[in-house]
Design brief:
203 residues, mainly alpha
């Protein structure tokens, strides 16, 4: 008899997934209280059906958005124990690991997610960023190029925005950036320098 409220609770949350995906990829912030309401709703879904991998995955994503990383990982681990093929759980756990500078483990999660669903551009970008943090520039560049081509194949132009003058930059950064611009086929580019505004850590 508990199936109906479980499915209804999950369905109500799943209907908001497009907005959640936008938030989780940092495209736009959530409405005030949205995260808390979602967690409360998913607490009830988990209570009604502790075998629902989706409920754990969505709640883990919501807790990750609140930076409750330990609790989020617990939920994501539970979700993947029930269903190892949940790409949301894999990608979200990978992002948490990357945020904790556990980039080698993050790449493992991103790889698994992309094996299941190769066209997830945001996951590909997250993997590229982890590759960069690990010093694996060739793999990072390959992922960036893959994302650019996929977007262009859909008829959308891609603009590259580059900032010079970061602490890790060396004189090679100019030629390397220009080589990437030419090889990647970007539709347009913009270059600027890192500006050390007064009162910020850079000044």
């Amino acid at each position: 008899s508990g199936e109906v409220p479980v499915n209804a609770t999950l369905q109500k949350y799943v209907e908001t997934l497009p907005e959640w995906q936008q938030y989780l990829e940092q495209v736009q912030p959530p409405a005030p209280g949205e995260v808390e309401r979602s967690i409360t709703s998913l607490d009830e879904a988990v209570r009604l059906d502790a075998s629902s991998a989706e409920a754990y995955a969505y709640r883990g994503a919501a807790k990750s958005a609140k930076r409750l990383y330990d609790e989020a990982v617990q939920d994501l681990d539970r979700a993947l124990a029930i269903n190892p093929s949940l790409t949301l759980a894999l990608t979200t756990r990978g992002k948490i690991r990357a945020a904790r500078n556990q980039h080698d483990q993050a790449v493992v999660d991103f790889d698994k997610a992309l094996e299941l669903s190769p066209n997830m551009l945001a996951t590909t970008l997250h993997r590229a960023q982890s590759f960069e943090a690990m010093g694996k520039s060739d793999q990072a560049i390959a992922d960036y190029k893959r994302v650019i081509k996929t977007i262009q194949d859909l008829g959308v132009g891609v603009v590259g925005l580059f900032v010079f003058g970061l602490e890790a930059d060396t004189p090679d950064v100019f030629q390397n950036t220009w080589d990437f611009v030419k090889e990647s086929g970007l539709d347009n580019v913009s270059f600027t320098i890192m500006t050390p505004y007064p009162g910020t850590p850079a000044r």
